[in-house]
C-alpha cells in the first residue's frame, strides 16, 4: 500500500497520460482537498469537489479529467494486503456501492484524522522492525477503511437479512461466472433457490430482474475491454461468453444503442 499527497503533474504510467482510460488491479481512494472536477469511473461521470471521496476498486476503469487539478490525499492498496475478515468487514469488493462519497463535517474530520494517522505510520520506517511496522500499517489501514465502508454503506437501503444474504450469494456468483454463465435458471439451481425467489430478492435489492442484473455485468465487462484493450471485437465477445461475434454485436447494441466499434472509438 501507499499513501501520499496527490501531485497534479504526476503521470499514471510513463507511457500513459492521465486522461486516457485506465484499468487498475488495485484499490485507489482519493480524499479530495480541491475541485470541482469530473472523474469517469466505469463509464459514469462523477462530479466531485473538496471533501468528497472517490473509491476505485480493482477491475474498474477510470479516467482523470484533462483540465482539472487533483489535490488531496491518495491511497493505493493491492488486494491481499489485508486478511479476509477485514476485507469482508470493510466491503472492499462491494462493487454495487457508489464510488463517490460525500461525508458530512464530522465524518470528514474523522476520515482525515484516520488518513493522517495512516500516513504517519506509513512514513515511519525507523521506529519499528519491518514485521511490526507492517502489522501497525494494517491496523491503521483497517481503521481508515472501516470508516470509509460505513460511509459507503450509509446510502444503502437496508434489506431484510435473509434477502440480503441471498442477493449477496447471487451477486458473488455472477461476479465469478458472468463470462461463462448468462442463465438465470443455472444460477438459481446452483444457489438452491427457485427462479421466483431469486427474482424477488434481486428485485428487492436492485430494482432489476436477475437477467437484467447479469446482462448489465456482461455489458460492463465488454465496455471495459473495448475501452482499455486492443482486443478485436470478436475476442471481446468471446471473453464475455459470446463465441459468435455477430451475436455479441447484436447483444451489445441492444443494451447500449451503440455498436462495439463505435463505443471503442468514443472512449479511446
Automatic annotation (TrEMBL):
Ranges of residues in domain HTH araC/xylS-type: 168-266
Q: Which InterPro entries match?
A: AraC-bd (IPR003313), Homeodomain-like_sf (IPR009057), HTH-like (IPR037923), HTH_AraC (IPR018060)
Task: Tell me yes or no: is DNA-binding among this UniProt entry's keywords.
Answer: yes
Name the Gene3D superfamilies for this protein. Answer: Homeodomain-like (1.10.10.60)
Question: Keywords on this record?
Answer: DNA-binding, Transcription, Transcription regulation
- Say if the entry is tagged with keyword Transcription regulation: yes
MF terms (GO), sorted A to Z: DNA-binding transcription factor activity; sequence-specific DNA binding
Its recorded name reads Transcriptional regulator
**Which source organism does the UniProt entry give?**
Streptomyces gancidicus BKS 13-15
Amino acid at each position: 500500500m501507499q499513501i501520499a499527497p496527490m501531485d497534479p503533474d504526476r503521470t499514471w504510467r510513463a507511457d500513459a497520460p492521465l486522461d486516457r482510460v485506465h484499468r487498475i488491479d488495485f484499490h485507489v481512494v482519493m480524499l479530495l482537498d480541491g475541485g470541482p472536477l469530473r472523474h469517469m469511473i466505469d463509464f459514469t461521470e462523477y462530479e466531485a469537489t473538496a471533501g468528497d471521496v472517490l473509491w476505485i476498486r480493482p477491475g474498474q476503469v477510470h479516467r482523470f479529467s484533462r483540465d482539472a487539478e487533483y489535490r488531496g490525499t491518495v491511497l493505493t492498496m493491492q488486494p491481499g494486503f489485508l486478511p479476509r475478515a477485514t476485507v469482508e468487514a470493510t466491503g472492499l469488493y462491494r462493487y454495487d456501492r457508489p464510488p463517490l462519497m460525500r461525508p458530512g463535517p464530522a465524518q470528514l474530520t474523522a476520515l482525515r484524522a484516520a488518513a493522517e494517522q495512516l500516513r504517519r505510520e506509513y512514513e515511519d520506517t525507523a521506529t519499528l522492525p519491518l514485521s511490526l511496522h507492517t502489522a501497525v500499517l494494517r491496523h491503521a489501514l483497517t481503521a481508515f477503511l472501516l470508516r470509509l465502508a460505513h460511509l459507503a454503506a450509509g446510502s444503502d437501503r437496508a434489506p431484510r437479512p435473509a434477502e440480503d444474504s441471498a442477493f449477496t450469494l447471487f451477486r458473488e456468483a455472477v461476479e465469478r461466472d458472468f463470462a461463462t454463465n448468462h442463465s438465470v435458471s443455472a444460477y438459481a439451481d446452483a444457489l438452491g433457490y427457485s427462479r421466483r425467489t431469486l427474482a424477488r430478492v434481486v428485485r428487492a435489492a436492485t430494482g432489476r430482474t436477475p437477467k437484467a442484473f447479469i446482462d448489465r455485468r456482461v455489458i460492463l465487462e465488454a465496455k471495459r475491454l473495448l475501452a482499455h484493450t486492443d482486443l478485436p471485437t470478436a475476442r471481446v465477445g468471446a471473453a464475455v461468453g459470446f463465441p459468435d461475434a455477430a451475436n455479441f454485436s447484436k447483444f451489445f447494441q441492444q443494451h447500449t444503442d451503440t455498436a462495439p466499434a463505435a463505443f471503442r472509438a468514443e472512449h479511446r
